[in-house]
Amino acid sequence: MKPTMTRLITLPLIGLLFLFPHLARALDMPFKQVAPGIYAYIGDTGLRTYENEGMNGNAGFIVTQAGVVVVDSGSSYQVAKSIHAAIRKVTKQPVKVLINTGGQDHRWLGNGYFKAQGAEIIAAAAAVEDMNARGAMQMEGLKGELKEKLAGTEPVLPTRTFEKEMALKLGGRDIRLLHFQPAHTPGDLVVWLPKEGVAFAGDIVFTDRLLGVLPFSSATGWLASFEEMAKLNPRTVIPGHGDVCDLAKARRETADYLHLLITHMERAVDKGDDLQQAIDSLDQSAFSKLPNYDLLKGGNASRVYLEMESR
Known about the structure:
The chain is 40% helix and 21% strand. The chain is an alpha/beta fold.
């Protein structure tokens, strides 16, 4: 009887997660405090995977005396739930406001969860246009990676929008939302806390990995947006990707790279170089130690060339 009893007890335990994948452990999302009451989660700097649940980007939250402000809802309903679980370890305050810093999937596809909690959802108007344009494609793309972990996720749009700037005052916090120009995505914005000197820069800043200029990106708008953000002179920058840093590091790994691409491709187009000549003469090696360099350098170069050519 003893071996039989052992089998009866252990086999279900071993096979439980395989038989019931929805019972798999939720994504561990450790948030670190970067200033009093201001927290950041630093996601993977690689690609979206089943293991990271599509969270190859950052998120954050701000605790106020009247409730919590969440910065980006994550890549799915389940990830948003994990964000809320992390918040509850810090405070019992309800989530009052959710800000989407752009139209990438990991910025907003968890909106449905926080809407169900009664949160007001805010984004730049340009981000909502981007969400409408790419939301179905993003959902389809994530199905292949996240499988059952995408359960419950629906593209839920923000409930409030603004064009360029919005002031948000909640529980003693002064928070400014700033959309400058189309950047990595058309609706990227900065969440700026002037009193604390903290900027949630969203996808305007990439550190600890090479940034990606995508078909819907604007390299020139991105660089201009970075420079507007830099005028705020933040003491602490929370990038869209990569670890919390100062403005100097953000400039080295984002603005300097964009400047290299833009100036080189402007000259190449002005000289009449074709695309291949322009790519062959571009030296990006100063950024070769950043993860994703080999994956992204070619596409970055060609897309910036095409942007300069279309001026």
